[in-house]
Amino acid sequence: MKKSLLLVLCVGALSSCAVNLGYEGRAFKKSYESITADDLKKHLYIIASDEMEGRNTGSEGLRKAGQYMIAEYQKMGVSHPPQMQNFYQTIPGSYFGSRRGVSYGDSDNIIAFIEGTEKPEEVIVISAHYDHVGKNKDGEVFNGADDDGSGTVALMEIAEAFQKAKKKGKAPKRSVMILHVTGEEIGLQGSKYYTENPIVPLSQTVANLNIDMIGRSDPEHAGKQYVYVIGSDMLSSELKKINETANQKSHNLILNYKYDDPKDPMRLYYRSDHYSFAKHNIPAAFFFDGIHEDYHKTTDDADKIDYPLLQKRTQLVFSTAWELANRSERIVVDGSNTR
User: Fold this and answer.
1) What average pLDDT does the segment 141-155 reach?
2) Which terminus of the chain has a lower count of CB atoms within 10 Å, N or C?
3) Is the pTM of this model over 0.90?
4) Would the CA dihedral through 167, 202, 196, 48 be positive or negative?
5) How far is residue 151's CA from residue 28's CA, in Å, rounded to a whole number?
């Protein structure tokens, strides 16, 4: 069979091709298809609403966003890690210190958990920050629909997809942690705190998939089906291959590795929450849509999100996580953070 024909068949019938990635046929397909543009939109219009007041670290608006997320997890039947009494990993305001004369109150990482069946002690962490930058001096709200409301709602849909598989008797072999971190906008503080105070030992953390802005397109890719993937081959020669194979068997997006170039002046590999894990030698991949005209502006609103593309990118992360959670051996660590 020609390669091009095989790819077409795989895209059209995920369940028939899924066995090549350790996918579980119908259970995977149903879970994958449960990630919809409509559900992502429903959640994002709430997470990125004015009611959340820009979700500044330690703010009442951020607490409201967290309460909404937890209520949704409880509706899904998704719980927190068994080591925790609830979904909250509270970070004291003193940890954040004062930045540009601004002090922050206590704030929370929010952690949901789907326990594995065969290797529950090994964990795949899927992360996104749910904080943003609050309001400006005129009281205008920075809703942060893309940054990182898009990653926040993607995590919620991924959790629900894994939970649906679990209800069908196909829970992942490894545990899946859904980690919503606070304090990213003030220096990756929530993910840094987590890796200093891990719920599961870092030695048992297999990989981190981090989502930070996947709902828009940058000027370079207007009208294109793409996503930037950053750092996937830094620490593991297998993670990039797994993600590429998952992409070929789903929507076959353009995977752009521009920001992997060590000479790239943006140095984005070091600028989102995945790096808190990579610093500890945990393989990580960062999914990103690029810098667009509404980045860190009050105009980053939910009505500007490309929801069909957000769905495809979320399904790609889910597919990659599914393979990482269900393959027989954990991925190798055979690289370094320097090139």
Assistant:
1) 98
2) N
3) yes
4) negative
5) 21
C-beta neighbour count of 70 within 10 angstroms:
19
In this structure, are residues 110 and 87 in contact, taking their beta carbons and an 8 Å threshold? Answer: yes
In sequence order, the 6+-apart residues with CB closer than 8 A to the CB of 62 are 52, 55, 56, 107, 130, 131, 182
- For residue 311, what is the DSSP state? H
Position of tokens 């909250």? 88
* Closest C-alpha to 249, from 5, 1, 13: 13
**Superfamily classification of domain 3-326:** Zn peptidases (3.40.630.10)
* Model pLDDT for residues 213-260, shown as the tens digit of each residue: 999 999 999 999 999 999 999 999 999 999 999 999 999 999 999 999
Q: How far does the chain reach from its first CA to its final CA, in angstroms?
A: 39
Q: How many helices (H) and strands (E) does the chain have?
A: 11, 10
- Cβ atoms of residues 111 and 180 within 8 Å: yes
In the three-class reduction of DSSP (H, G, I as helix; E, B as strand; rest coil), residue 164 is classed as: helix
pLDDT digits (tens, 9 = 90+) for 270-329: 999 999 999 999 999 999 999 999 999 999 999 999 999 999 999 999 999 999 999 999
pLDDT score of 151 more than 60? yes
Which of 134, 150, 154 lies closest to 142, judged by CA? 134
Q: How confident is the model at residue 11 (pLDDT cuts 50, 70, 90)?
A: very low
Which pLDDT belongs to residue 101? 87
For the chain, domain boundaries: 3-326
d(CA 50, CA 54): 7
Buried b (16+ CB within 10 A) or exposed e, 230-258: bbbbbbbebbbebbbebbbbbbbbebbee
CA distances (Å), 172 to each of 59, 159, 209, 319, 326, in order? 35, 11, 16, 12, 6
